[in-house]
TrEMBL record:
<feature type="domain" description="Aminotransferase class I/classII large">
    <location>
        <begin position="29"/>
        <end position="335"/>
    </location>
</feature>
<dbReference type="GO" id="GO:0004069">
    <property type="term" value="F:L-aspartate:2-oxoglutarate aminotransferase activity"/>
</dbReference>
<protein>
    <recommendedName>
        <fullName>Aspartate aminotransferase</fullName>
        <ecNumber>2.6.1.1</ecNumber>
    </recommendedName>
</protein>
<dbReference type="InterPro" id="IPR015422">
    <property type="entry name" value="PyrdxlP-dep_Trfase_small"/>
</dbReference>
<dbReference type="GO" id="GO:0030170">
    <property type="term" value="F:pyridoxal phosphate binding"/>
</dbReference>
<dbReference type="GO" id="GO:0006520">
    <property type="term" value="P:amino acid metabolic process"/>
</dbReference>
<keyword id="KW-0808">Transferase</keyword>
<dbReference type="InterPro" id="IPR000796">
    <property type="entry name" value="Asp_trans"/>
</dbReference>
<comment type="similarity">
    <text>Belongs to the class-I pyridoxal-phosphate-dependent aminotransferase family.</text>
</comment>
<dbReference type="InterPro" id="IPR004838">
    <property type="entry name" value="NHTrfase_class1_PyrdxlP-BS"/>
</dbReference>
<comment type="subunit">
    <text>Homodimer.</text>
</comment>
<keyword id="KW-0032">Aminotransferase</keyword>
<dbReference type="InterPro" id="IPR015421">
    <property type="entry name" value="PyrdxlP-dep_Trfase_major"/>
</dbReference>
<dbReference type="InterPro" id="IPR015424">
    <property type="entry name" value="PyrdxlP-dep_Trfase"/>
</dbReference>
<dbReference type="Pfam" id="PF00155">
    <property type="entry name" value="Aminotran_1_2"/>
</dbReference>
<keyword id="KW-0663">Pyridoxal phosphate</keyword>
<dbReference type="InterPro" id="IPR004839">
    <property type="entry name" value="Aminotransferase_I/II_large"/>
</dbReference>
C-alpha cells in the first residue's frame, strides 16, 4: 500500500475541461477560445520577431547561464520598472520602487502574497467578482484572507461601478485592493479614466493599499503607456502600491516565466527594507529567477530600435485580437431571416462544464 494513500485526487483545472471538449469535438468549424495564448491566423503559436532578434544578439554575445542574484537581473529590473511607470516618473527618480524579478505574473503575485501574509497578518485582499481564477488560489495557499468586490454586472454586460465603489468603501480600513491594470480577466471590462480616478479616491480615503496585477500591458489598447495609465494615476497621487508584472502575453514569453513585483514605498529607506524581505521570501521558494527571458526583455526594452519594433508588433497583435473578437461576436449574433439567432459557430452538442 502506498504511503501516499491519504492523498486524494486534486480537482482538474476548470479551463482544462474546455480544452478537452475542444479536442474531442469533430465539428470542422470549432474554435478554441480557452487557449491562453496569442495564436496566428494558422492557429500556431507566435514567436515575436523582436524576440528572435534579441535571442540572436544573445547567441552572438555568447551569454552565460550562471545564476542570477535573488532579486533577478539588475538591468531587467531597471527596464521593467521604467516600462511600467515611464522613465521620467518621480517614483523612479526618487528611488521609491522596490523591484524584484520573479516567476512571471503568477510568481510575482505569490511573492507579494507571502509579504502580505508575513507583515500584514489578518489583512484582507479584496478582488473583483469575478477575477482570474488563480487569484483566489494564490491567496488561499499563501493563507491571506480575501473577499470580493462587485465588478461585473450581467444586466448591462458592463462594470457595476456603484457596487464596486460601495464594496471598496465598506471594506476594513487598510485592506489591499487587487486591481487589474488593463484587459480585465475574465470580463474584458476596464474602468474608464474617470472611474479610475474615483476608485483611487475611495482607495485613498480608506487608506487601502492598491495592488495591481498587470498581465497585459500593451495588449488592451496596443499602447504600452495607455495600458499603464491606471497604475500611473495611483502613483501620481503619491500612494504606496504594489504591482505584479508579466511578459507572458505582451512579448509572448509564456514559458520563460518572466515578470516582476514592484512595491512603491513612500521612502527610499522603506524600499531597501521591503526589497530585502522580498528577497528573503524568494530564496527558500525558488532561490533565483530565470535569466534567459530576463535578457530577452532587457534587450528588447533597452534597445530603441527593438523597442520600436516591439511596439509595432504589439499593436498588430492587439488590433488582431480586437478584430477576432468582433468577428466572433458578429458570427454568434447573426440572425436568420425569421430573426432567430443562428449562432452557428456554437457546437450544439457542447455545453460548458458546470
Ligand atoms: N494575471 C492575470 C489577470 C492573468 O490573466 C494571467 C495569465 O493568464 C496572469 C496574471 C499570470 O500569467 P503568468 O504567470 O504567465 O505571467
Amino acid at each position: 500500500v502506498s504511503r501516499f494513500e491519504g492523498i486524494s485526487m486534486a480537482p482538474p483545472d476548470p479551463t482544462i475541461g474546455v480544452s478537452e471538449a475542444f479536442r474531442a469535438s469533430t465539428n470542422e468549424r470549432k474554435l478554441d477560445l480557452a487557449v491562453r495564448a496569442y495564436r496566428t491566423e494558422e492557429l500556431q503559436p507566435y514567436l515575436l520577431n523582436v524576440v528572435k532578434k534579441a535571442e540572436m544578439l544573445m547567441l552572438e554575445r555568447g551569454e552565460h547561464r550562471e545564476y542570477l542574484p535573488i532579486e533577478g537581473l539588475a538591468a531587467f529590473n531597471k527596464v521593467t520598472v521604467e516600462l511600467l511607470f515611464g522613465v521620467d516618473n518621480p517614483v523612479i527618480k526618487q528611488q521609491r520602487v522596490a523591484t524584484v524579478q520573479s516567476i512571471s505574473g503568477t510568481g510575482s503575485l505569490r511573492l507579494a502574497a507571502e509579504l502580505i501574509e508575513r507583515y500584514f497578518p489578518g489583512v484582507k485582499v479584496l478582488m473583483s467578482s469575478p477575477s482570474w481564477s488563480n487569484h483566489k488560489d494564490i491567496f488561499n495557499d499563501a493563507r491571506v484572507p480575501w473577499s470580493e468586490y462587485r465588478y461585473y454586472d450581467p444586466k448591462t454586460v458592463g462594470l457595476d461601478f456603484e457596487g464596486m465603489i460601495a464594496d471598496i468603501k465598506a471594506a476594513p480600513e487598510g485592506s489591499f485592493v487587487l486591481l487589474q491594470g488593463c484587459a480585465h480577466n475574465p470580463t474584458g471590462i476596464d474602468p474608464t479614466p474617470e472611474q479610475w480616478e474615483k476608485i483611487a479616491d475611495v482607495v485613498q480615503e480608506k487608506n487601502h493599499i492598491p495592488f495591481f496585477d498587470v498581465a497585459y500591458q500593451g495588449f488592451a489598447s496596443g499602447n504600452l503607456d495607455a495600458d499603464a495609465s491606471s497604475v500611473r494615476l495611483f502613483a501620481a497621487r503619491g500612494m504606496e502600491l504594489m504591482v505584479a508584472q508579466s511578459y507572458s502575453k505582451n512579448l509572448g514569453l509564456y514559458a520563460e516565466r518572466i515578470g516582476a513585483i514592484n512595491v512603491v514605498c513612500s521612502s527610499a529607506d522603506a524600499v531597501a527594507r521591503v526589497k530585502s524581505q522580498l528577497q528573503r521570501l524568494a530564496r527558500p521558494m525558488y532561490s533565483n529567477p530565470p535569466v534567459h527571458g530576463a535578457k530577452i526583455v532587457t534587450n528588447v526594452v533597452g534597445d530603441p530600435d527593438l523597442f520600436n519594433e516591439w511596439r509595432k508588433e504589439m499593436e498588430m497583435m492587439a488590433k488582431r485580437i480586437k478584430s477576432m473578437r468582433r468577428k466572433l461576436y458578429d458570427s454568434l449574433t447573426v440572425k436568420d431571416k425569421s430573426g432567430k439567432d443562428c449562432g452557428d459557430l456554437l457546437d450544439e452538442e457542447y455545453s460548458l462544464p458546470s
